[in-house]
Amino acid sequence: MRNELVLGVIAVMVLAFIGLSLTGVFSSTGNAAKNVDTGNHPVKEFTVQSYTETKDGKYFPTFSPKEMTVNKGDLVRIKITNIKGMHDFKIDEFGVYTETPLNQEMTVEFVVDKAGSFEYYCTQPGHRQNGHWGTLNVL
Ligand SMILES: [Cu+2]
């Protein structure tokens, strides 16, 4: 009988841990997470690289991927690593911004509460105009 009680307690703890993990409570990465809503939102996670390519002596800053698609109501988690150049990451419509120091994974989290196509981009001078942007589609 006692063993069953212990097993029951362990099962409850494991379930609680899984539940909290899914809701993002343990997802703190110690950096620029914003607008975190740990409510009952499906989580969509993306890994993005930010860098500068050089072609014919010209600089082409870019994100990879250049497009992400989520559903309205999702908790969007984007992990961004800048692997070349000086960049940052911004989405005006959702109040998202993080600096992206070189070779350091930065995480932003936000709930998409409106549908549409929104631009994520780099605010460094000239970068957005030269292609340092992508599209977040919210269906
Ligand atoms: Cu940039």
How many whole angstroms does the radius of gyration measure?
19 Å
Q: What is bound: which ligands? A: copper (II) ion
**CATH arch. level architecture of the largest domain:** Sandwich
The percentage of residues in β strands lies in: 35-45%
DSSP, total strands: 9
Global structural class? alpha/beta
Domain module count: 2
Largest sheet: 4 strands, mixed
How far is it from the N-terminal to the C-terminal residue, by CA? Answer: 52 Å
User: Which parts are unreliable, with pLDDT below 50 for 5 consecutive residues or more?
Assistant: 18-31
Structural shape: globular
How would you characterize the overall build of this protein?
This protein is of the alpha/beta class. It folds into two domains: 1-30; 31-138, Immunoglobulin-like (Sandwich), CATH 2.60.40. 15% of the residues lie in helices and 44% in strands. The chain has one helix and nine strands; from the N terminus they run H-E-E-E-E-E-E-E-E-E. It has one helix at residues 2-22, and strands at residues 43-55, 58-64, 67-70, 75-82, 87-91, 96-100, 105-111, 116-121, 133-138. The strands form three sheets. A four-stranded mixed β-sheet has the order 2-1-4-7, with no helix packed on it. It has a three-stranded mixed β-sheet with strand order 3-9-8, with no helix packed on it. A two-stranded antiparallel sheet has the order 5-6. Strand 5 (87-91) and strand 6 form a beta hairpin. The longest helix is centred in the first third of the chain and has 21 residues, at 2-22. The chain binds copper (II) ion (CU).
